C-alpha cells in the first residue's frame, strides 16, 4: 500500500476529527479554492480511505467496553473496590464524599456476573437436569410404543398368540414402571 504524504495524513486526521472533507483539506494546507474538490477526491483514494478506516476502528475499540472490561468493572463494584462520588449536605453547604456501592448494588453486580456463567447457577443446573430427565422419559416412552406397535403388527394364527402378545406388552409396561416411577401411567 502506498504511504500517505504528510498533507494526506494531515487531511485524514482532520477529517476524522470533523467529518468535513472541505474543512479537513483547508486545515491540511490545501488551497481554499481547491479544498472542496481535493477533499472529495482524497476520500476516494484507497490508501487514505484505509488509513481513515483503521483509525476509526482504533478509536471505536477504545470507546466501547469489551466483555473483559465489563466483568472487571462488575467485579470491582461487587467487591466494593469502585467508589462513587456523593454529595452530603452540612447545613447550607455540601461536601463531596466517596463511598462504596450499597449491598443492593453489589448483589445486582454479582447477578450480572453470574448470568455470564450459567453452569455455576444451581437453579439453571436444576432446570437442565429436569429437561434431560424429561427427554429421557419421552425417548423411553417412544421406544416402548414402537416396540408394542411392532408386536401388534405381526400376524397371529390363533387367539392364544394374541393373548400372549398382550401379556408380553403388559410385562414390558410393568418393567418400564421402574423407569418412569410407580405413579406414572404409560400410554400405549
Automatic annotation (TrEMBL):
<feature type="compositionally biased region" description="Acidic residues">
    <location>
        <begin position="156"/>
        <end position="165"/>
    </location>
</feature>
<protein>
    <submittedName>
        <fullName>Terminase small subunit</fullName>
    </submittedName>
</protein>
<dbReference type="InterPro" id="IPR005335">
    <property type="entry name" value="Terminase_ssu"/>
</dbReference>
<keyword id="KW-1188">Viral release from host cell</keyword>
<dbReference type="InterPro" id="IPR052404">
    <property type="entry name" value="SPP1-like_terminase"/>
</dbReference>
<dbReference type="Pfam" id="PF03592">
    <property type="entry name" value="Terminase_2"/>
</dbReference>
<feature type="region of interest" description="Disordered">
    <location>
        <begin position="154"/>
        <end position="188"/>
    </location>
</feature>
<dbReference type="InterPro" id="IPR038713">
    <property type="entry name" value="Terminase_Gp1_N_sf"/>
</dbReference>
<keyword id="KW-0231">Viral genome packaging</keyword>
Amino acid at each position: 500500500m502506498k504511504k500517505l504524504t504528510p498533507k494526506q495524513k494531515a487531511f485524514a486526521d482532520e477529517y476524522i476529527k470533523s467529518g468535513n472533507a472541505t474543512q479537513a483539506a483547508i486545515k491540511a494546507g490545501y488551497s481554499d479554492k481547491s479544498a472542496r474538490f481535493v477533499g472529495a477526491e482524497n476520500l476516494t483514494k484507497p490508501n487514505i480511505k484505509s488509513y481513515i478506516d483503521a483509525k476509526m476502528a482504533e478509536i471505536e475499540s477504545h470507546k466501547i467496553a469489551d466483555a473483559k472490561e465489563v466483568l472487571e468493572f462488575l467485579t470491582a463494584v461487587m467487591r466494593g473496590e469502585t467508589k462513587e462520588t456523593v454529595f452530603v449536605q452540612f447545613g447550607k453547604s455540601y461536601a463531596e464524599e466517596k463511598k462504596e456501592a450499597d449491598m443492593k448494588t453489589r448483589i445486582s453486580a454479582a447477578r450480572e456476573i453470574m448470568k455470564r456463567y450459567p453452569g455455576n447457577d444451581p437453579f439453571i443446573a436444576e432446570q437442565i437436569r429436569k429437561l434431560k430427565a424429561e427427554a429421557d422419559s419421552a425417548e423411553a416412552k417412544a421406544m416402548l410404543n414402537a416396540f408394542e406397535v411392532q408386536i401388534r403388527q405381526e400376524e397371529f394364527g390363533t387367539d392364544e398368540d394374541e393373548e400372549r402378545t398382550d401379556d408380553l406388552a403388559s410385562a414390558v409396561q410393568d418393567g418400564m414402571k421402574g423407569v418412569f416411577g410407580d405413579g406414572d401411567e404409560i400410554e400405549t
